[in-house]
Write a structure and sequence with these properties.
This protein is an alpha+beta fold. The chain contains four helices and eight strands. Strands 1, 2, 3, 4, 5, 6, 7 and 8 form an eight-stranded antiparallel β-sheet that branches.
């Protein structure tokens, strides 16, 4: 399968700022409506095949501040699976780097908030999950073709509140 060429706009310093601005707006709307608005991604491959969206809380690894980002997700048994694609940019997203330091966190799906522990998928688990993720949102394969880094897959396992 051939992928479209990597857009030059991906190298714009404005793109991360735009991601952050759009993400904040989506979080506000999602929270206000319990996910009725903003709970489905309909851009790119999601236009024809909408993808469910959750809110992920993460604590800054150096600031200790609380952040929230919207992410596409896959339900896999009791686990929720997310992808640190950042649209194929060369660096891992902040939320991923933060979860590596502070893996115990919360997600919100619809109006339900859940306690989870983030575990980065090892090689075997990633190989099992990647085709399911690409089936969920075909653009993940395109994003992987645009970057030299291996895009991490993160499994959000249920945990008891502490």
């Amino acid at each position: 399968m051939s992928h479209p060429p990597r857009p030059r706009q991906l190298d714009s310093p404005l793109l991360p700022k735009l991601f952050k601005l759009v993400g904040r707006a989506q979080v506000a709307v999602y929270r206000r409506t319990g996910g009725r608005i903003g709970g489905t991604w309909r851009i790119g491959a999601g236009f024809r095949k909408p993808v469910p969206t959750l809110l992920l809380e993460h604590r800054g690894r150096t600031t200790n501040r609380q952040y929230i980002v919207p992410l596409l997700y896959l339900v896999h048994g009791e686990d929720i699976v997310v992808v640190a694609s950042q649209g194929g940019l060369p660096k891992h997203p902040q939320w991923y780097r933060n979860l590596c330091v502070h893996p115990d966190t919360h997600i919100q799906i619809g109006s339900e908030r859940r306690a989870v522990r983030a575990v980065v998928a090892d090689v075997a688990r990633r190989a099992e999950l990647w085709p399911l993720l690409v089936d969920l949102y075909a653009d993940f394969a395109t994003y992987q073709s645009w970057t030299e880094r291996e895009i991490p897959v993160v499994i959000l396992e249920p945990r008891a509140e502490s």
